[in-house]
DNA sequence: CGCTCAGTTGAAGCATTTCAATTCTTGTGG
DNA sequence: CCACAAGAATTGAAATGCTTCAACTGAGCG
């Protein structure tokens, strides 16, 4: 996985997201609008807390590059990762009012974020409905992810649970063009995975090993390969066909 | 709990939601817009499936009255309830594109829904940004609920988990004025609760009994009373102060 | 080259599930 | 108004999946 390929601020015309065919192309008007709203970029190294639960965030972010994750923690340290954040994701909107975050976001890799002032979000709705619609669509899409994960954590057993999450991440990353020779960068530890699926680290590890020995997946040195997605998805009792697609408008 | 207090279609001016002080009041323009979009009402008895996962829904709904719940099921019948649906909630938006639902919605009581054609949602964004903003805010609010529940299912132990969910529902229902003499209608079975928190029915039952004996809650004949919310919330390690509020706009 | 963090493994303990049976509620028809 | 059936709640006991503890191995880094 490359470190940021651009050394300083990116003009929206050259936004790396625009090159991904997962995202719809924008009209000149939309583009101009985004440019006007964009206040800058935030670059952080791995292991940085970008947003902290309980604090107020004056900015919303679009992820241009890198991996991060959203999570909540109980007072005694138990952590639940609610979702992973990949390029194209929008973060900061999922807060209660007044910009108080209901969860934290930490980076996993070096990350480039595009920043927008929260106070001006309203302008999007007022002047650029198509972008506002995208925003809502993004939120709805994220909700689909949360729903499926909730099903997983609540009702799947360890083996299904791990299998599901591997498939989920593998597909998501592949969809935005992060696969290289069928392998996808997994820039996180087994502990992160454990915290995402609500299992203990040890049991997650043992389950991973079992899946590996069955030849259903390989995850070494930060790269993951799933030779037969269909097979792993079936083990997870997960319907691969319900893939997310782009908005109607 | 009363059956629908209105026998036939409700004009938006008299919408029961408008009487709740949780919801912001609408301008004449907004009201007119909603009236134009509203295509009718859907009334269903308890135990009805309003939306089914995998099917296409041409309508979006606002809940005027009654309880329902969103859920997903695995092929072998294991069910995860992702959230309960109360008056003021919006359902149907949380679908993948093309209106294919990613989850189902069943009613718990008699329910009155206000219906909007999905195909015309775009008009809201185009012509009534403030309502579009509300829609997004609603989605973000729901995400907060999902996040907290995910934390619960994944990382809280049985006792905390049950305590959290009771508090959550009690507060949510109270907030929209459903509390009567400090008691709230809980029109669902212990099995529903079990499926919401990802525990077995038996263990949920035993945990409920324990909490009851501790005097932290009473739930009988479909009504729930929590004499000391703070105490129950503390047991759940849940911060009651992070209450949701209404949108900025 | 040694320190630290991530991954791995076995074994013991325990929370939760599953099984099975009984009681309590609620609604329905005689 | 009572008897009965069906659904919901309750309880004990056995089974098990997952967690915790503990120890070791391996990889990456200064």
Annotation keywords:
disordered N terminus, globular, homodimer, 249 residues, four-stranded antiparallel β-sheet, DNA-binding, alpha+beta
Note down, in words, how this protein is organized.
The structure is a homodimer of 249-residue chains. By secondary structure, chain A is of the alpha+beta class. Helix content of chain A is 38%, strand content 21%. Chain A has 8 helices and 12 strands. Chain A has helices at residues 16-19, 28-37, 121-127, 129-155, 158-175, 190-197, 201-213, 229-235, and strands at residues 40-44, 49-51, 59-65, 68-73, 79-85, 90-91, 104-107, 111-117, 179-180, 183-185, 218-220, 223-225. In chain A, the strands form 3 sheets. In chain A, strands 1-8-3-6 form a 4-stranded antiparallel beta sheet. In chain A, strands 2-7-4-5 form a 4-stranded antiparallel beta sheet. In chain A, strands 9-10-12-11 form a 4-stranded antiparallel beta sheet. In chain A, strand 11 and strand 12 form a beta hairpin. In chain A, helix 3 (121-127) crosses helix 4 (129-155), helix 5 (158-175) runs antiparallel to helix 8 (229-235) and helix 6 crosses helix 7. The longest helix of chain A is centred in the middle third of the chain and has 27 residues, at 129-155. Chain A is globular and about 55 Å long. Mean pLDDT of chain A is 90; it is low at 1-5 and 244-249. Chains A and B meet through strand 5, helix 3 and helix 4 of A and strand 5, helix 3 and helix 4 of B. The structure holds a DNA duplex (30 and 30 nucleotides).
């Amino acid at each position: 996985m490359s470190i940021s390929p651009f050394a300083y601020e990116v003009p929206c015309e050259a936004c790396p997201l625009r090159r991904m065919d997962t995202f719809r192309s924008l009209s000149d008007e939309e583009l101009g609008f985004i440019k006007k709203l964009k206040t800058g970029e935030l670059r952080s190294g791995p292991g940085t807390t970008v947003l902290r639960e309980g604090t107020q965030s004056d900015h919303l972010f679009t992820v241009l590059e890198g991996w991060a994750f959203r999570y909540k923690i109980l007072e005694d340290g138990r952590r639940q990762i609610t979702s992973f954040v990949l390029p194209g994701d929008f973060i900061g909107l999922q807060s209660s009012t007044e910009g108080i975050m209901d969860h934290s976001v930490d980076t996993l890799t070096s990350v480039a974020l595009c920043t927008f002032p929260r106070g001006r979000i309203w302008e999007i709705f007022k002047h650029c409905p198509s972008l506002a619609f995208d925003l809502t669509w993004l939120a709805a899409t994220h909700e689909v992810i949360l729903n499926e994960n909730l099903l997983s954590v609540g009702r799947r057993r360890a083996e299904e649970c791990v299998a599901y999450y591997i498939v989920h991440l593998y597909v998501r990353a592949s969809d935005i063009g992060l696969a290289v020779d069928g392998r996808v960068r997994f820039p996180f530890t087994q502990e992160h995975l454990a915290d995402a699926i609500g299992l203990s680290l040890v049991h997650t590890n043992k389950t991973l090993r079992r899946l590996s020995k069955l030849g259903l997946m390989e995850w070494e040195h930060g790269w993951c390969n799933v030779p037969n997605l269909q097979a792993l998805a079936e083990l997870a009792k997960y319907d691969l066909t319900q893939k997310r697609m782009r908005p109607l408008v």
